[in-house]
Amino acid sequence: MTRRTTALAVLFAASGCQCIDDINLGLIPDAGEQINDAGPAPPKFPLKAGDQIEYPALGGRTATCPGGGTTGDCDRAITATFIVRDTELDDGARWRITADVVYQGSADMIEVAAIAPLVLENGAPFDAVSVATPSSADAAEFSTDAAPTDELTELGFPFFQFESGDAHVFEESGQAFCARYLALDASANCEFQAGDQKMEVYYKDDAAGGGGSSLHHLRAEYHNMGFVCGWDEGLIPFIDDATTPRNQSSFGPADTPALAAIFASPVRILRDGTNYSCSCFSQQCKAGNGADATCLSTDPDAEPGPCE
Hints:
Elements: H1 3-15, E1 52-62, E2 75-89, E3 95-108, H2 112-115, E4 135-143, H3 169-184, E5 189-193, E6 198-205, E7 214-223, E8 227-237, E9 259-263, E10 267-271, E11 274-278, E12 285-287, E13 294-295, E14 305-306
Antiparallel strand pairs: 1-2, 1-9, 1-10, 2-3, 3-4, 5-6, 6-7, 7-8, 8-9, 10-11, 11-12, 12-13, 13-14
């Protein structure tokens, strides 16, 4: 035994240490090995810069025409086009959409005041738009969590954060939706369902005007691509609680609401030169038909693929 070997043997014997057996040499990475733990991928909003979203017709229609006009012509509507510039997730896990927007009047047979009771009227500048007078804004910043109530603003429509980022956005917005209508009518019939991607309410509206109360129905539907895709709204005279229940039975199949929203569908997305029609029912945005049809993905960086 050499002098060096003897010295090492004495050292281990003196310490009584058995820790050499506890050293896991396998945990020591090779010089070229890298350990990456970046965590989950950040969320993405389904829409991206350059996407153009078009609503063919938004507005309202009255059952009777002022001045004896032809029934069916008593409407006021606009075409709304949004061109996405940027999508950004803030510290509160809420998306902000920066977009250019153009509102073009498509019908103005009735005054803006006639459709003012509609919640949808709050979602666009109807008071500043007519067939002869378009309106536009550059780089407007839209929220994506606004509840469809009488407190809606133009910057709260049409984008909505349904599945991107914080999973509680729909629930919190739905709670605010029902809380507002229950504040207006303690007997309001209100629900929100993430599975059906809708918020719906029947409530007694004392602020609708016309010399009496109205039964106001509103159903808003959402697309997983990040926007409102359906809107059903109407008002009928409210007689009393016994004869005007707060549900769909009050809106008979042959009855025409005194005031109803116009919401033409489908909503369309123009991306990379291709038009996609977006369905609330299928939750798809589709171009083409049959075997040649392609659909957008909720991943904005993914290429369009076969429709499921």
